[in-house]
């Protein structure tokens, strides 16, 4: 059963047992302070951490701090109150508390408390399934923490929380490898600081990613690591989460009795905590395993309890899961009408979640954040270019200094050799900059979004969702590929399939695009420059097929003739190069293929690591009467590496 929202919450949950402090102890602390209120987070927490679960004491603390104009202590108190309300599922009140804390921290110019407040606000939004504001607040917290001149232990811990939260966003998008990368970054910090709560959180999130990838044994190992750390810090919330997750893995491994035992224990603990989110999931998981054990009557009761709780508190993800489990149960018992009813409700709500998360994410997040990251890459490459120039100037100075000691001829040879090497590095960096700029074509993006918008306007929801999903996957693949000089041929073919699906919208889906891979070729181990085939497909579309009326076809074949090359052919049945040049010559606005020139340069640079250079053949095909049958482009990509050659 998906437990994603739980993972999102788990990224910042702090569940420690209440200390047996009495009001008199609180009063004595205030008297001992003698009106000298602390300003640093560590000092404040050391004094008042024992009251973190006592809402009456925290309200009194906020009131007294306000009268004393102790902004930092007042902010701390409101954040702790927000955590209490959040864990009791009073989300709006929790948001109010954390936003007050943030405002006070800003007024006090306390970065530590402001970062903590921003992360807490993000946690509440993630629990409410509001992905975009959650991501906004976590990113703001991360940026603010990184901007501090001095990284305090509290800021370091907050950075780990923000990285963990970014990983949870990737979990939402089912980008599990990227999520794992973020969790492992967070783990490094938690290990350095010895934060056992942070270790429990990250190991659990790693377990969820492993479970989603089907690595059940590895997921179980990470869940049990998380449980061990939760036992060490005596976190009851952590136990509840781990019990449910371990139970889910047991169900998938068909260990139903073990699953039932641990899920029932998790339900007891959730009921004692009174946290409705975990109560709903515990009931749903219990109903699921009871169904597997043939206890259908009890399964129905518990699934309906989980549905009632999730519906009452607006927990969309768990509501979807409850409907799906009930649909499976009724289908098993041949009550098809009830099964269909619950299945339709699940699909309807899931589509709502999809629309809220994915449409908003694609339009507001991917383009905003990932393009920002892409622009930063371009700036970084430009800086590296300047660094190369700086190195060149420095080496010229070294040359003149060395000239005093070494012979003139030897000095000149060293300088010439170094100058050539730096020029080559500069050429590579310039080529990568050109590649990055050409990959994200604004004209293509806007036309694609306009095409999808037309589906939405025409109320073609299925087509809009289908192509929006394709478009978001394609954009993510481009952004991921742009960080790597080469990728597997398998990933390249997947990306090209997405590209053709999106471009086909503008051709009214008239183009038949097929991919054939010769048996015996393992495309997952063959490396090619990223997005190397896109310019050839673009030429086939716009020069070969755009002027043709019907029967538009493009075939991509991967085959092998000898051991030195992998051959990729792209064949279209368009009007041919000659006719295309005549049409293009008559146009006022001519379409230039800048991408093809960059592609040739990238292939040439890629081939330097191999024993043979790349080859490219362009064949104009004609029938017996001399009529054009289309164009075939064959790219021979070298595969036999030469360790003596360097790129």
What does this structure look like?
With 647 residues, the chain is an alpha+beta fold. Among the domains are: 1-20 and 29-198, Tetratricopeptide repeat domain (Serine Threonine Protein Phosphatase 5, Tetratricopeptide repeat), CATH 1.25.40; 359-439; 484-638, 2-Layer Sandwich (Heat Shock Protein 90). Helices cover 71% and strands 7% of the residues. Strand 4 (552-559) and strand 5 (565-572) form a beta hairpin. The chain is globular and about 95 Å long. The two termini are 48 Å apart.
Write down the overall mean pLDDT.
Answer: 81
Shape: globular
- CA distance, first residue to last residue: 48 Å
CATH class of one domain: Mainly Alpha
Features of this protein?
71% helix, Heat Shock Protein 90, 647 residues, Serine Threonine Protein Phosphatase 5, Tetratricopeptide repeat, two-stranded antiparallel sheet, 7 strands, disordered N terminus, alpha+beta
Question: What is the strand and helix layout of this fold?
Answer:
Elements: H1 4-10, H2 23-33, H3 41-48, H4 55-67, H5 71-87, H6 91-107, H7 111-127, H8 131-147, H9 153-172, H10 176-193, H11 196-212, H12 216-233, H13 236-252, H14 256-273, H15 276-292, H16 296-312, H17 316-332, H18 336-403, H19 408-439, H20 442-457, H21 461-481, E1 486-488, H22 489-506, E2 511-517, E3 527-529, H23 534-545, E4 552-559, E5 565-572, H24 577-586, H25 594-607, E6 615-622, E7 628-638
Parallel strand pairs: 2-4
Antiparallel strand pairs: 1-3, 4-5, 5-7, 6-7
């Amino acid at each position: 059963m998906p437990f994603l929202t739980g993972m999102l919450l788990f990224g910042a949950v702090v569940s420690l047992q209440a200390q047996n402090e009495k009001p008199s102890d609180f009063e004595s602390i205030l008297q001992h302070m003698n009106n000298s209120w602390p300003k640093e987070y560590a000092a404040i927490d050391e004094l008042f951490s024992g009251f973190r679960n006592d809402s009456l004491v925290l309200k009194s603390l906020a009131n007294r701090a306000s009268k004393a104009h102790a902004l930092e202590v007042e902010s701390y108190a409101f954040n702790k109150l927000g955590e209490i309300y959040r864990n009791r599922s009073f989300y709006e009140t929790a948001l109010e508390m954390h936003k007050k804390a943030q405002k006070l921290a800003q007024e006090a110019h306390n970065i530590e408390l402001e970062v903590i407040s921003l992360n807490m606000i993000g946690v509440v939004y993630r629990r409410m399934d509001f992905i975009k504001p959650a991501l906004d607040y976590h990113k703001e917290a991360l940026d603010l923490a990184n901007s501090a001149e001095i990284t305090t232990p509290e800021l370091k811990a907050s950075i780990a929380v923000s990285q963990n939260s970014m990983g949870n966003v990737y979990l939402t998008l089912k980008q599990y490898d990227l999520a794992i990368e973020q969790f492992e970054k967070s783990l490094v910090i938690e290990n350095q600081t010895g934060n056992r709560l942070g270790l429990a959180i990250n190991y659990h999130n790693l377990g969820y990613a492993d479970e989603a990838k089907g690595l059940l044994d590895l997921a179980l190992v990470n869940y049990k690591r998380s449980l061990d750390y939760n036992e060490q810090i005596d976190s009851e919330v952590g136990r509840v989460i781990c019990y449910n997750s371990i139970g889910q893995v047991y169900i998938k491994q068909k260990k139903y009795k073990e699953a039932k035992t641990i899920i029932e224990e998790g339900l007891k603990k959730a009921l004692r905590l009174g946290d409705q989110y975990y109560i709903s999931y515990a009931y749903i998981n219990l109903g699921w395993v009871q169904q597997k054990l043939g206890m259908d009557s009890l399964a129905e009761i518990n699934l309906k309890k989980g549905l009632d709780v999730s519906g009452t508190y607006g927990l969309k993800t768990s509501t979807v899961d409850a409907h799906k489990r009930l649909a499976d149960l009724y289908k098993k018992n041949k009550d098809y009408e009830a099964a269909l009813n619950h299945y339709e409700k699940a699909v309807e709500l899931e589509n709502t979640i999809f629309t809220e998360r994915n449409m908003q994410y694609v339009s507001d997040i991917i383009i905003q954040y990932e393009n920002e990251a892409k622009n930063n890459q371009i700036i970084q490459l430009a800086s590296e270019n300047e660094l190369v120039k700086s190195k060149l100037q420095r080496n010229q100075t070294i040359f003149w200094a060395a000239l005093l000691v070494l012979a003139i001829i030897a000095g000149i040879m060293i300088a010439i050799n170094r100058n050539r090497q730096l020029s080559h590095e500069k050429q590579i960096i310039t080529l990568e900059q050109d590649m990055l700029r050409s990959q994200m074509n604004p004209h293509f993006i806007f036309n694609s979004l306009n095409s999808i918008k037309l589906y939405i306007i025409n109320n073609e929801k299925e087509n809009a969702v289908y192509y929006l999903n394709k478009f978001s996957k394609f954009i993510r693949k481009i952004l991921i590929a742009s960080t790597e000089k080469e990728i597997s041929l398998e990933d390249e073919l997947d990306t090209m399939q997405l590209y053709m699906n999106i471009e086909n919208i503008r051709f009214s889906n008239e183009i038949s695009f097929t991919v054939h891979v010769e048996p015996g070729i393992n495309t997952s181990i063959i490396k090619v420059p990223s997005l190397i085939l896109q310019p050839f497909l673009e030429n086939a579309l716009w020069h070969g097929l755009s002027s043709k009326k019907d029967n538009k076809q493009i075939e991509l074949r991967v085959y092998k003739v000898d051991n030195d090359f992998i051959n990729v052919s792209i064949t279209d049945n368009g009007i041919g190069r000659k006719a295309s040049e005549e049409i293009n010559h008559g146009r006022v606005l001519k379409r230039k293929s800048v991408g093809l020139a960059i592609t040739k340069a990238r292939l040439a640079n890629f081939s330097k690591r191999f024993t043979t250079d790349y080859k490219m053949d362009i064949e104009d095909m004609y029938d017996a009467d001399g009529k054009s049958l289309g164009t075939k482009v064959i790219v021979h990509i070298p595969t036999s590496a030469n360790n003596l050659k360097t790129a």
